[in-house]
Design brief:
The protein is an alpha/beta fold. It is 51% helix and 19% strand.
C-alpha cells in the first residue's frame, strides 16, 4: 500500500510518501515540500498548492492519504492557512476516490517516537532511522509529512513487533 502523508501549510506543505508491504514494513518512496510565496495573493497560492499536490497524487498514485488535523493555534492567520491547505489536500483525495485519515500532532508523535510530546528534532531523528535514510529530511515539514505516513501505516494495527522496535530505537536516540 502506498501512503501519502501531508503536513499542510500554505507557505510550506510537506508531502511524504511511503510504501507498506504485506509484512507491515515501511519503505521510503519520496518526500517533497511545496512552497508558495507569501507575497502572492491567497487565491494564487491556493491554486499553486492545488496544482503541485495534484501532480504528486498523479505521480505517486497513493492508496491512502494521511493529513495532520488542524488544531487550535494562537495565531489565527496561521491556523487559517493550515486549514485552507488541508482542505485542498482533502478535495484532491476525494476527487481521487481516496479516504482521508486525519491525525493530531500528538498522535503522530506518539506513533513515531513513542512519546506524544516529542520535539521536531526527535521526530526527524526517528523518521530518519525508521526509514533508513542517509540524511535527515529537511525542513521539518518534510519529516512531519513522512511521520504522518508512518503513523497511518502503523496506527491501530496492534502490531507488537513495531511497538517493540520503536521502543528500542527511542532508547538509542535518547542516549
Amino acid at each position: 500500500m502506498r501512503i501519502l502523508g501531508i503536513d499542510p501549510g500554505l507557505t510550506r506543505c510537506g508531502v511524504g510518501i511511503v510504501d507498506l508491504d504485506s509484512n507491515r514494513r515501511t519503505t521510503f518512496v519520496a518526500v517533497h515540500v511545496i512552497r508558495t510565496p507569501p507575497a502572492n495573493d491567497l487565491p494564487q497560492r491556493l491554486l499553486e498548492l492545488e496544482t503541485q499536490l495534484r501532480e504528486l497524487f498523479v505521480t505517486y498514485q497513493p492508496q491512502a492519504v494521511a493529513i495532520e488535523r488542524v488544531f487550535s493555534q494562537h495565531n489565527v492567520r496561521s491556523a487559517m492557512g493550515t486549514a485552507q491547505a488541508s482542505a485542498i489536500a482533502m478535495l484532491i483525495a476525494a476527487r481521487s476516490g481516496l479516504d482521508v485519515a486525519m491525525y493530531t500532532p500528538t498522535e503522530v508523535k506518539a506513533a513515531v517516537t513513542g512519546y506524544g510530546r516529542a520535539d521536531k528534532t526527535q521526530i526527524t531523528a526517528m523518521v530518519t532511522r525508521l526509514l533508513n535514510l542517509k540524511e535527515a529530511p529537511k525542513p521539518a515539514d518534510a519529516a512531519d509529512a513522512l511521520a504522518l505516513a508512518l503513523c497511518h501505516a502503523w496506527k491501530g494495527q496492534g502490531n507488537a513487533r513495531i511497538a517493540q522496535h520503536l521502543q528500542k530505537i527511542a532508547v538509542v536516540v535518547a542516549s
